Fold this protein.
Amino acid sequence: MVLSGVEQKILTMATPPRLPSLNALRAFEAVARRLSFARAAEDLFVTKAAVAQQVRLLEEEIGAALVARSGRGLRLTEAGAAGAATLTEGFAQLARAARAMRETRGRRFLVVNSSASFAATWLVGRIGRFKARHPDIDVLVDADARDDALGEADAMIRWGDGHFAGLSVAKLFEETVFPVCAPRLVAADPPLKTPADLRYRTLLQLDWNPSFPTWPSWSDWLKAAGAGEVDSAHGVFFNQMSMAISAARQGQGVALASPAIAADDLASGALVAPFATTVATPFGYYFVCRPEVAQTPRIQALRDFLVEEAALSRKTGT
């Protein structure tokens, strides 16, 4: 049997060292990138406990602590920081390899990278409509948000202030914040007629990471609505907006939401916005890609579609 040059190279390579569990490495890479077990779990579509367990297993095998508590958040130890960036690049290379193998079948995906929460609450519900409009374009939604995603993705949807150096950017949503709740909570006794009536409801709060100090709180919204006398310090606290929205949908209380996150629930009637007052933020969701591909037909089609869908969501809540 005659071996190809590639096969000969593979056979002559030294046997690679035994690697720790890839699941453990992937869990640590997500934690290192997000500095949060909860956000890493969201990215990987597993539980927070599962991520923590995988990181502990990796620490046991490495023989060193990789993450440590820092106030209300996490920080990488010296050992963790030593490998985090290389792991991120390694998984990016694996993703590129998998994509290359898929494309040998003659199937060229349009890959769009997004956070898991945005993909689940807004993007996934609209990709089917894009496919119906563009049946010749196959879309792969990559819900593992990371800074280097354009290494293998064609486009990204990112949350931020709109400044993405060196990239082509199109705004989808300006983030505003407003209360939402289940319809039955509006009519409950006593009824929810004015913002001051929120004193009779449980406020569903977001316990944000300190790196987001400018996100409006219940105190900010109540002041804007002229109801500063309502006690904003108590309620039920969550560290993910999606969890607060889920609790609101179940009738547990009133949450602060944004258009991108609440659009579909408002459209279906699962949630209502009882008051017109909104508080603006300096953030939003943006469609981002490399400038050299910004005007290619497939990227342009996806960008135009998502901008159109975002405008529809802002206008009708659908």
Notes: The CA atoms of residues 124 and 141 lie 8 Å apart.
